């Protein structure tokens, strides 16, 4: 049986190219015609899929926040509650976010630069999804490192997100290690940051099975 991923839909192709172009040249530096040309259709043809650039931006930013939250919940629920290993869950959360940070760099740039361009309702939805994602991590971090207070764990989670989401700014791609090596480096740095924070709060605990 083939395990090949299905080909992206035209709508997905449009969003991918829109994200790339918006990240490279800014939201106002890209026209509908240019996005259409990148996917081989006329600019006006895009309106069969989206109402305009603002709708594309909203779907990109709301969509990635929703996917991160859904993916995090899935990883946290993969092991039955009675058999749950919090360190393994944290490891899985870190690896999932690293995949996002390395494979969806244009979306990180878009979030940093263009979030304020969203309508209030869309921006509030993005913030709500992000808060839920953070709190999911906080719960797991507190289980792995119980000497951390909830506030400390939340600060650590935000700091680790800052570390992982810095990938668009690290350097030109050719100057970095290969993807697998970069992923493992980020993995060690992220888990190391949580351990260092726990060490500062007292004897580290709950670190078994971290995979490092």
From TrEMBL:
Residues in coiled coil: none
Ranges for domain HTH tetR-type: 8-68
Record keywords: DNA-binding
PROSITE patterns: HTH_TETR_2 (PS50977)
Top-level taxon of origin: Bacteria
Ranges annotated as DNA-binding: 31-50
SUPFAM superfamilies in UniProt: Homeodomain-like
Stored InterPro entries: Homeodomain-like_sf (IPR009057), HTH-type_TetR-like_transc_reg (IPR050109), HTH_TetR (IPR001647), KstR2_TetR_C (IPR041490)
Gene3D superfamilies: Homeodomain-like, Tetracycline Repressor, domain 2
Protein name, as recorded: TetR/AcrR family transcriptional regulator
Origin species: Streptomyces cuspidosporus
């Amino acid at each position: 049986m083939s395990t090949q991923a299905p080909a992206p839909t035209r709508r997905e192709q449009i969003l991918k190219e829109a994200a790339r172009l918006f990240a490279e040249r800014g939201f106002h530096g890209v026209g509908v015609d240019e996005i259409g040309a990148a996917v081989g259709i006329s600019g006006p043809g895009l309106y069969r899929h989206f109402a305009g650039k603002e709708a594309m931006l909203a779907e990109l930013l709301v969509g990635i926040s929703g996917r991160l939250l859904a993916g995090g919940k899935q990883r946290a629920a993969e092991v039955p509650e009675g058999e749950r290993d919090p360190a393994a869950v944290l490891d899985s959360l870190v690896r999932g976010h690293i995949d996002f940070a390395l494979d969806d760099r244009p979306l990180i740039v878009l979030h940093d630069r263009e979030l304020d361009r969203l309508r209030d309702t869309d921006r509030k939805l993005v913030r709500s999804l992000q808060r839920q994602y953070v709190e999911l991590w906080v719960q797991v971090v507190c289980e792995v490192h119980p000497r951390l207070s909830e506030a400390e764990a939340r600060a650590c989670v935000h700091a680790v997100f800052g570390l992982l989401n810095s990938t668009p700014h690290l350097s030109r791609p050719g100057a970095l290690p290969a993807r697998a090596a970069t992923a493992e480096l980020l993995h060690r740095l992220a888990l190391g940051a949580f351990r260092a924070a726990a060490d500062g709060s007292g004897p580290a605990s709950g670190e078994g099975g971290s995979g490092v």
